[in-house]
Amino acid sequence: MIAAKERNGKEDVWIPTCCGQCYCMCGIRVRRQNGVVTEVEGNPEAPTGRGKICVKGLAGPQLLYDPYRVNYPLKRTNPKKGIGVDPKWERISWDEALDIIIKKLKKCQEVDPRGVYFQATTTQASEIRFGVIGFMKAFGTPNYWVSGGGLHCGNGAHFMNGIMHVSWSIIPDFAHCNLPLNFGCSKGHGAGHVAVQNATQAADARARGSRTITFDPFQSAQAAKAHEWQPIRVGTDGAMALGLVNSLLNEHGIWDDEYIKYKTNGPYLIRPSDGRYMRDKETNKPLVWDLVDGCQKIHSDPSVTRVEYEDEAHDVAIQGRYTVDGVECTPAFELLKEHVKKYTPQYVEEITWVPAASVSRIAKEIGQAAEIGATVTIQTEKGPKKIPKRPIAAHYFRGSQGHVNSGWTCLSIDMVNHIVGAADTWGGAMGLGATVCGGYEGTGKPYQIPYADDDGLLVAKAWVYDHLPYPMRVPKPPTRLDLHDMFPTSIYNAFTITSPRWFEMLDRFKIPYRPDIMINFGSNSVMTMGHAETVTENFLKKFNFIFSFQLYITEFEEAVADIVLPDTCYLERYTPAVSFPSTFSHPQGEDDWGWTIRQPVIEPLYERRDFNVVMLDICKRLGISDKYYKGLNDTIIMRYGGAMDDKYKLCEDGSREHEWPEVTDRLLKDRFGEEHGLDHVSEKAVFTWPKRKEDVYWKWFNPARVPLYFEYFIDSGEQIAKLCDEFDAKEFFDFDWSRFKALADWYPCPSHTEPDPEYDMYTFYWRAVMHCNSLTQQNPWLDECSQEDPYVYAIQMHADTAQKKGIKQGEKVWLENSHGHRVRGWVALTEGIEPRHLAVAAVAGHWGEYMPIAKGKGTFFNDLVEMDKEHTDPLTLNQDICCRVKIYKA
Amino acid sequence: MARYGMVIDLKRCYGCYACSMACKVANHTPPNVFWSRVLKGESGTFPNVVRQALPVLCFHCEDPGCVKVCPTKATYANDDGVVVIDKEVCVGCKYCMMGCPYGARYTVPEWKSYFPEGLPLSELEQFQKEAWEEKSGCGVATKCDFCTERREDGKEPSCVTACPADARIFGDLDNPDSEASQRIKRDRGFVLKPEQGTKPKVYYLPPR
Ligand code: SF4
Ligand code: SF4
Ligand code: SF4
Ligand code: SF4
Questions:
Q1: Using one digit for the tens of pLDDT, what is the confidence trace for A432-491?
Q2: What integer pLDDT is reported at residue A465 of this predicted model?
Q3: Which of A216, A658, A704, B24 is within CB 3.0–4.6 Å of A184 for a Cys-Cys bond?
Q4: What torsion do the CA atoms of A129, A134, A136, A138 make, to the nearest 10 degrees?
């Protein structure tokens, strides 16, 4: 820690660490005066934030000292569970709490360790990778989910971006992009990963004169800052994007020939019989048609590949028909071009409510702004290199992807970029976090250069969890409690575990164990998932014992926790790696790499104990700490860019234990050299090194291609359907597995097909800049700030619609869906919303007794979110989070 | 001598409230006091409508209405143009609050906690209370002072440092080469309610 400095004879010191109010991992400096944490500032040394900070980060001290924090272990004495039940908490000692926990865990270990289910929050994403994953590996359970986060935003977006950009998200290269197309996402405008840095970059772009077009049902921050706002119907972004793709390809005849030919599977020859690749008999590799030699070649033949832009290669066919081994095949690109023809501007207007003329005009604008053929020269390690300049970028996040068309919507939006070659090159759509890293020069770590598999497609070298987005896992008879093993695209899902027939499903799939113990780390899944009663009754109450590391007693603890353990907040703990895995949340752009750590700015207050310290302690008591260390060593390979040297590896033979500062020290030394351990890094809480330009604009330095044609989905869909049949599971989920197909389409959400005209309003939720997930609602400064904003606690409604319905400004109303679920709130009238929509902010509307600041503020939107299979994307198992409601006075 | 002012670039600003919060934390303002505030407005009718954020603070006017009406001379401008309040002299008559055309001044009769009554104050709130009483005080007029303490430490005002969009520029308006002066000249800087004649030293750059 930093040596104390004095001011007027009193301690006054700024300590660098990393923010933890959201998952953006900004470097911060925290002021401690006479032992009291009083202020937070951005840390200019840290590339994440660069001295800037958001409203939540600034409000951090209130989280530390909130009198409503849980400060002592608590035990539920009322055996009854459920929403609204008084748990009758009793304060207990840590010893007693841990004794109870160990006893329960030991029993579960004997019966079947897979009975343990870990639930975590995305807010503490970096801690998850240690305490949660290490424990799961050591204890031997595969059961895990992060509530809300993953299912509202992750299954579609992270999966597709993983395939197309080896990253979690996408973002315009703001520094050079002239036309960002924003599909209802707050990236660059307050929320999303790398929020602060993106906001700075987006502001720079505006100042530079870039032109933004935003598709969003309401005047969000991103719509308000845009040059053109297209009020789109919720859930139809995918159709809009396919309309743009069609218009580009078939109306304007615009695409990036070189990109399609050498950086995608557009030239791969597809056989008509089953839509599969035509493969080389000998090597089994997909074939392309060489137009110079007039014959087929395997895709990786040097004569038909260009790694770098200035490489030379034969022209290859992306249109026409070519006969290989007597079979007439078509290049994938041609199939795509044909396939999207149905998305005419008129058809797109019907779906999206964006005028047909705008579809066509925006496509043309994209085509022109992309400057296809233009290049820039960048300085690489190997000297100056020419790369394509493609300054347009379509990007999106939760808004567009939280629908039953999630996977294909994500892909469709990104397809706009790939058609004009604007991906991971100058000015285009870039992976976020920054992914491609050749490593620190002293050690070569973290090493995260993606590569091509045998089919020539892009494979991530670093990823946030163990299974990669590509190559796709082979669906297997399930062993996990959410049947995850048989659904290769998803991270987790809700429709199984929240189903009233969950256990029947487990029986049917011959899963021999049942949920026993839930360990919760910071999540409030009663509120962050969907309809609260459903989550509680169908899922959470199925556990025999739940213990929870938490900062507050949230609605989750109140409803179902047996033991609450007082966790430290981010200001009271060590976390060895925060800005890495960079895939998750590291700024894009030419600024340095930064490996940020968390270090305590104050000793834990009261009886709070750090989650990671306690999990390690639990492992010691269970006698599995050796396995835990091994679990961490294994985790580091995929997530942090390569294996640890033996010298720094955590001890796997049980002969010694490690503390968190030491783990931090070892990881740092292993990545950055003996001299750059904790002592060195703690001075700035970040280790930085320069980014190579070829790692920023990596597309034309890497041999891998990306798919425009998802051939391998076909197999996957067939495999899942077969598994379902084998287990006779149709009655549980008769999903349309044909959505596992090679080419993108748009599918309507239940909100679009609601048959009852009484439910006449579309509703969705948006993310307010002052909130992350659900906990920030209890911060009194953020609450006050929310009240400053006209909409954060309101239901936004168009003034004319309200007038027709006789609803006035400020009036209390109910929103009710056709499942009879309803939520309460008050209306703020506005012109800034498409008149058939209602907009609600964030996870608000808390009712818990132990978060009085949050209680009763805003609307609990998630109570309108259904988690059944009708609201689940068959392709990615993402949840639909838009709905149709009727509105009436409360 | 410098003549301090600020420029807020509305093209860069996206209404994130970091300035409000940064000010609150650095200057320990109690509930309902926002020396730095973000106003939100909307103009036009659907679909030709746009929302605009307008961050406001004390404009440190050259001819400040507040100073004119202050009967005790508690409010005055420093040599560097920063308008300040001497809390020892202020009698809390609130004339200045009427005299300021921008609603930049705040007063609280007594210090209040953010939390429901009856709880012991947290260490943070105890600190906030003392710091507020030391710097500003209850029953007297208070407002933005361009972060006196931070400037003494050689730092920029808190709201300027925090702003994720780099929308705020603090500087010497007497120095024609300062970024603030340059930007006002180059980007058509304007002030709010010029007809009030108080000559604000906080300028805005147009949103589009
Ligand atoms: S964006 Fe997230 S990590 Fe960054 S300052 Fe805000 S709350 Fe903290
Ligand atoms: S911090 Fe900056 S961007 Fe945010 S509201 Fe204030 S001036 Fe605008
Ligand atoms: S804005 Fe108001 S308080 Fe500030 S100097 Fe001008 S008149 Fe005085
Ligand atoms: S200059 Fe300082 S006192 Fe004035 S609004 Fe900004 S942060 Fe507040």
A1: 999 999 999 999 999 999 999 999 999 999 998 888 999 999 999 999 999 999 999 988
A2: 85
A3: A216
A4: 170
Tokens at residue A888, please?
């009436």
Closest alpha carbon within chain B to A221: B14
pLDDT of residue A467: 85
CATH of residue B10's domain is 3.30.70.20
What ipTM describes this predicted complex? 0.98
Q: What is the CA A644 to chain-centroid distance, rounded?
A: 27
Peptide bond into A438 cis (omega under 30): no
- Chain-chain contact of B20 with A52 (C-beta, under 8 angstroms): no
Place of tokens 């056709």: A818
Q: How many angstroms is it from A17 CA to the middle of ligand 1?
A: 12
- CA nearest to A250, candidates A330, A316, A340: A340
| Token duo for residue A66 | 């909130």
Residue B140 belongs to domain spanning: 4-205
* Bridge partners, residue B55, by sequence: B38
User: For residue A37, what is the nearest residue in chain B, using CA coordinates?
Assistant: B124
Averaged pLDDT, A134-145: 96
How many angstroms does the Cα of residue B132 sit away from the middle of ligand 4? 14
- Give percent of chain A with pLDDT exceeding 90: 94
Count of structural domains within chain B: 1
Closest CA to A307 of A843, A866, A694, A707: A694
For residue A602, the tally of other CB atoms under 10 A from its CB is: 18
> What domains does chain A contain, in order, with CATH numbers?
157-437+700-714 (3.40.228.10), 750-889 (2.40.40.20)
pLDDT computed for residue A148 by the predictor: 66
Closest ligand, as measured to the CA of B5: 4
Mutate which of B12, B19, B34, B144 to test ligand 2's pocket (most atoms within 8 Å of Cβ)? Answer: B19
The residue whose CB lies within 8 Å of the most ligand 2 atoms, and thus the one to mutate among B6, B10, B17, is B17
Distance A883 CA to ligand 1 centre (A): 30
Q: Is A64 on the interface with B (CB under 8 A)?
A: yes
* B17 contacts A788? CB cut-off 8 A: yes
Neighbours of B34 (CB within 10 A): 22
pLDDT value at position A563? Answer: 98
**How far does the CA of residue A71 sit from the closest CA of chain B (Å)?**
13
Residue of B nearest to A225 (CA): B14
Q: Is the pTM of this model over 0.95?
A: yes
- Which residue is associated with the tokens 């006479």? A34
| Residues of B with Cβ-Cβ distance to A223 under 8 angstroms | 51
**φ/ψ (deg, to 5) at A663:** -60, -45
Whether residue A44 contacts residue A828, with contact meaning beta carbons closer than 8 Å, is answered with no
3-state secondary structure of B89: coil
In this complex, do A62 and B124 lie within 8 Å of one another by their Cβ atoms? yes
CA distance B190 to B208: 13
Q: Which residues pair with B83 in a beta bridge?
A: B77
CA dihedral A847, A849, A850, A851 (to 10 degrees): 40
Answer for the pair A85, A60: CB distance below 8 angstroms, yes or no.
no
Q: A209 touching B, CB under 8 A?
A: no
Question: Which ligand 2 atom lies nearest to the CA of residue B17?
Answer: 5
Residue nearest (by alpha carbon) to ligand 2 atom 3: B13
A328-356 per-residue burial string, b: 16 or more CB within 10 A, e: under 16: ebbbbbbbbbebbeebbbebbbebbbbeb
* A63 close to A854: Cβ distance less than 8 angstroms: no
- Phi-psi map region of A200: left, alpha, beta (phi>0 left; psi -120 to 50 alpha): alpha
Cβ of B158 less than 6 Å from ligand 4? yes
According to DSSP, residue A475 is labeled P
Q: Give the ligand whose atoms come closest to the C-alpha of residue A772.
A: 1
Nearest to A60 by CA among A551, A439, A440: A551
pLDDT tens column, A386-412? 999 999 999 999 889 999 999 999 999
A189 touches chain B (CB under 8 A): yes
